[in-house]
Every structure is written in C-alpha cells, then in structure tokens.
Amino acid sequence: MDQSTSPHQSSILRDGAKAAWPICLGYFPIGLALGVLAQQAGLPWWAMALMSVLVFAGSAQFICVAMLAASSSIPAIIFTTLVVNLRHTLMSSALAVYLSGINRKFLAVFSYGVTDESFAVNMTQFKSGHWDRWRALVVNQLANSVWLVATITGTLVGQFVPQGAFGIDYALTGMFICLLVFQLQGRIYILTGLLAGLISVIWYLIIPGDSYIVGASVCAATLGYFLKRYYRSNK
Amino acid sequence: MTFSDYMILFCGMGLVTYLPRALPLIYLAHKQLPQWLVDWLSLIPVAILSALLFPSLFADSANRSLSLGKPEFLVAIPTLIFALKTRSLGGTVLVGMVLYWLAGFYI
C-alpha cells in the first residue's frame, strides 16, 4: 500500500460506499429487469450469475439476452459485445491520468470494474482531490456486487416486482445529471458538454447501434480542445 | 444451451469486455502522457456524460426518433437546478426519482 492511501480500511470502505450508493440504487432495478428478461429467454439463474461475473457490462448483457432469445450465434454475440464495449477504451484512457505509475497487477484488477457509472463517479472524486485508487476500487466492486445480486434476483423473483416503483428507473439519470454538473468547471467544459449532447442526439437519430457515445464524445472533446487552444492563443 | 456453451459464450464476451478496459489503462498509466493528450482527456468525462444523457432525454428509444417534452427531460430541468444549487449527488438522485415517480401519475 502506498503512502497516499489511508491505512484505515474501514474509512476506505465507508468513503467508497458513500460514493457508490447512487450507482447501487440505479443498478438494482436495471439488474432486476435484465434478470427477468434472461429468465424469459430461457437462461437459468446460474447462467445469469456466470454472465454477471464474467461480463460485468449492463448494456452488452441486455443485448446478449435479446440475441440469445433470437437464437443468434455465439460469435455474433461476442462481436456485438466488443463493439458495444469499445467506449470503455476512452474511459480507461481518461482514468490513466489519475492512476499513473500504479503497479500493473492493481490496474489489471481495477480494469474489471470500469463501467459508465463507476467511471463517472470515480473521475468526479479523483478530480476533487480527495480520492485514491483503493476507494475507487471499492466503488467498482460494490457496484459489481449489487449488479450480481440484482441480476440473479431478477431471474428468480423478478416477475413479481412492480415496474417503475418510486421512480427508481430515474436513479442513474439523476446521477448522471449531477455528475455532469460537477464536471462543468468553466466555459470550455460547458461548451464541450453541449456539443457532445447535440452531436450525440443527431448521431443517435441517424446511425443505428451504440457508436453515438464514442463518436459524439471524441468529436466534442476534440472540438473543445481546439476551441480552448484558439481562445488561449488569441488572448 | 449446455453449460459449456454458456462458458464459451461468456468467456468470449468477458474477454472482449475486459481488454478494452484493461489495455489502455495498463499501457497509458506507465507512459509520460503528452500535455495535449492530458488536456484532451480532461474533456472526455463531460463529453461522455453528455453523450450518455442527452439521447435519453431528447429521443425515443423505441423507434429512435426525436421526442421533445419527454417526462425524462421535463424532470431533468428541476433535477438539474437542484444539482446546481446544492451540488449534492445523493439529494439529486432522490429528487430526480421522486419527481419522475410523480410525473408518472400526471403525464
């Protein structure tokens, strides 16, 4: 353990849990829904458990279940998973700035839990300065545990759970809105966010599939980068 | 499908899920990143969050068409204001949930 981390394991767990709870709240209904669909597609609970452990990737798992229900081939499902998850290369690259020089063994373990949600929460925390890799790992693994429990529960009892109770379907949207607010630390960030939003909607409407996430992010960040340089050189 | 079919499928999916997460992190964390890349990467979180969020607020996922005035968007406005004023993640999540729940009764 390096010097920058607190030696108190309980405080690491507590801080991690405090940061992770909105993810967990949001994962539960989504995981349940996935479990219900999987059960309807004929997956036994242990297959769902196996998938949530080996493939911790919500949207790819939904697509896999839909493709299994449509009797798609195994190579086709694996290829689709690769395409859907390519966006995480971008997130891992951004995380590398805060995890530079950390031993590869830790990074190999940490990478397993990089999702849209854990990325957003951990980046916000790293940027605030009061964060370290162990707390970030707790966020990843807590989210993973809840996901595992929720998806298995879905296959077992999901059909008895009422849909949309207490607006819980909005938990992740609410979390993304607030994390977006945390990121708006200057005009260039607001501009980049608006550009990404505009491009992503247009891309989403025109091009099928999930490429809009990576496409819009790369376009907007690049435009934002050049705008920033342009303003700097004209000052 | 048999157990071994599931194993082959999930191991394959797991591999193509893990590698895009692990390779950039393990490679880039041990490189001296040029300043332009650090600057560019600093804009990635805000861009990704917006790209994940906006289509769910302004587009209908069933037939991929533009949809203005969705409850998701209407609820997002007070939720955004709450987030700007309080900067509380937990509070924003709860406010968004309650408003969305209530919106379900009226919209």
Question: What is the element layout, followed by pairings?
Answer:
The complex is a heterodimer of chains A (235) and B (107).
Chain A: H1 9-40, H2 45-54, H3 58-69, H4 74-85, H5 87-96, H6 104-111, H7 116-128, H8 133-157, H9 171-183, H10 187-206, H11 211-233
Chain B: H1 3-28, H2 35-42, H3 44-58, E1 59-60, E2 65-66, H4 71-86, H5 89-106
Antiparallel strand pairs in B: 1-2
How many beta-strand elements of chain B? Answer: 2
- CA-based shape of chain B: extended
**Uncertain spans of chain B, ≥5 residues at pLDDT below 50?**
none
> What is the alpha-carbon Rg of chain A in Å?
19 Å
Taking all Cα atoms into account, the compactness measure Rg of chain B is 20 Å
β-strand amount of chain B: under 5%
Q: What percent of the residues of chain B sit in helical stretches (DSSP H or I)?
A: over 70%
Share of helix of chain A, binned: over 70%
The total of helices of chain A stands at: 11
Sum up the overall morphology of chain A in one term. globular
